[in-house]
Amino acid sequence: MEKRRTVDPSVMEMLERAREQQISTPFDRAEVTKPCPIGREGACCKHCFMGPCRLVGKTTVGICGATIDTITARNLTRAIAGGAAAHSDHGRSIAQTLLAVAEGKAPGLEIKDETKLRRVAGYLGVEVGERSKEDIARDVANVALSDFGRQEGELVNLKRAPPKRQEIWRKLGIAPRGIDREIAEAMHRTCMGCDQDYEHLLMHALTCSLTDGWGGSMLGTDISDILFGTPAPIASTSNFGVIRPDEVNIIIHGHEPTLAELIVAVVSDPEMLDYARSKGAKGINIMGMCCSGNELLLRHGVPIAGNFLQQELTIATGAIEAMVVDYQCVMQAIQAAAERTHTRIITTSPKVKITGATHIPFEEHHGMDIAKQIVRMAIDNYPNRKGVHIPDFMDRMVVGFSHEYIAYMQGGVYRQSFRPLNDAVIAGRIRGAAAIVGCNNPGTTHDEGHINLVKELIKNDVLVVSTGCAAVAYAKHGLLTPEVMEYAGPGLKEVCQAIGIPPVLHMGSCIDNSRILTVLTQMATEGGLGEDISDLPAVGIAPEWMSEKALTIGAYAVASGCYVLFGVGSPVKASAAVTEFLSKGWEAKVGGKLEFEPDWRKILEKSLAHIDAKRKALKIADYDPARFAKSESYAPADYLDYKNFDEGLYTVKAGSK
Ligand code: NFS
Ligand code: SF4
User: Fold this and answer.
1) N or C terminus: fewer CB in 10 A for the chain?
2) What number does the ligand 2 atom closest to the CA of 51 have?
3) Which domains does the chain carry?
């Protein structure tokens, strides 16, 4: 049977519409461009011009003599360096913005969360005292920036990990010195004729990944919270139904929140609204896509139009005046799609241009003017619409579960802790926790693995946290609502009701996986669940991954002690030794392991088995699904149609609420 393209009915509808308009989508392109089977499994090396060398059939070494183990390990290490570079450069840019704000050079931006500023100052060893927030912020920014160029020592945030974890890193010599240094070293080691021992390479891959999780991403998350506010629960909506037929629609796509925040501020300006009305529109509607979208969603409740595979389809609605993109996960094909409609693609990062698109590079000193220019350009484009088709699908959600908020929910301002959650795990009410994160990939049915895993895990009393495009998948399928508690196992349901959280928590963008590291650390150090992240009954899953950044996240989760499962397929399949090392080898050294498993059902089995094994090792109660079966039931709200909960198709129509 032919693989289904998606389980999202609104995406099915838009695929039809895109075909009529001859707009190409990744779903179509994936049918034409089949991935090269040699490269896909890691068996192709193009690190020098004697090659590329493809190690298939009788060819067992490259022209330089590199073995299949070296080549696959080298390819993976480079991918991890690529992802670490992307996330860390994002973190650097946010730190530079904080510096500009502290120095009064970024009009329109300010320090929104002073409490967080003071807390982060504490982590970074910056004196707080009676100093002004600008003075503290300047020092915080400078210490953060020094993490990038440091040559010796350690990243500042490593000391936030459980003490036992820090010891492991130091003993193995994988504690990163400076962010840029380790990424550059990964590029050097994988250059022709350098590091040619796969285990040695893969240990550096862990060092490099740690520069992301406990380095660039953690700094990026913390400083974004300082500048734009720490997320707390907020309601919003998702999917194509959030596009408004009679308003100027602007999609914010990419990863960096800075300019996006300014655009959100600009659109409520009465002058802008009048201008929009003068062009015949009823208002201005901002929506997000991918992780810039997640940042705006968590802090402002800005609706999210879709996840990674929906970018061209959004344009195909014919109702998007401007798609504003910064960097990462932006398909070049959005420009071709835009040329078939009236949509304008506007690139805003000085680092990123797309041929044919309008380039308006962001610059802090004139941020407000740039935001206004972009919004005006979108308004001017409103009268140019041709035909509009917006699928009538929209779901509701509650998002914004920062680690601060999760702690706060467990004891208020003065007594916050992770005690209630830890106790629930110890008693077996909650079986364990899963972080389901990452991308979409047309190589597997869009959203299918994501939503099936969530449904099965919560049924099995596993609490789920999520970020990135995975979280958007849950949003679109109605899984980020408190009503979903009805489908959680009885123990999990009881705990969620008591604490007041839903069983699936949207924690933010992909850099916000650093929030998950903080939660895991707090659970590991709270008491009763061992003393390290590797002791916890928890798993990390990326069922539909595609990006190098996902590999980096997976690797830093492993280095932090987690069992990580990736779907789709394995980029190191060509080497049995490397496959084994990522699993058993890494586990023996750091307590975490990485495995690739295309079938979501097997991912589920392995996750539950791992959680149960960790419970056993901790000598806490065996999980018994029947023990808490008497918790009171929770009636789902009538606007959500859960009839098809088991089929994975329960998106509701926008108008039917
Ligand atoms: Ni993450 Fe977020 Fe999405 Fe994947 Fe891309 S947007 S940074 S990499 S595709 S989850
Ligand atoms: Fe081939 Fe070795 Fe060059 Fe790679 S580095 S392309 S294996 S000769």
Assistant:
1) N
2) 6
3) 9-54 (no CATH), 68-228 (1.20.1270.30), 240-384 (3.40.50.2030), 403-630 (3.40.50.2030)
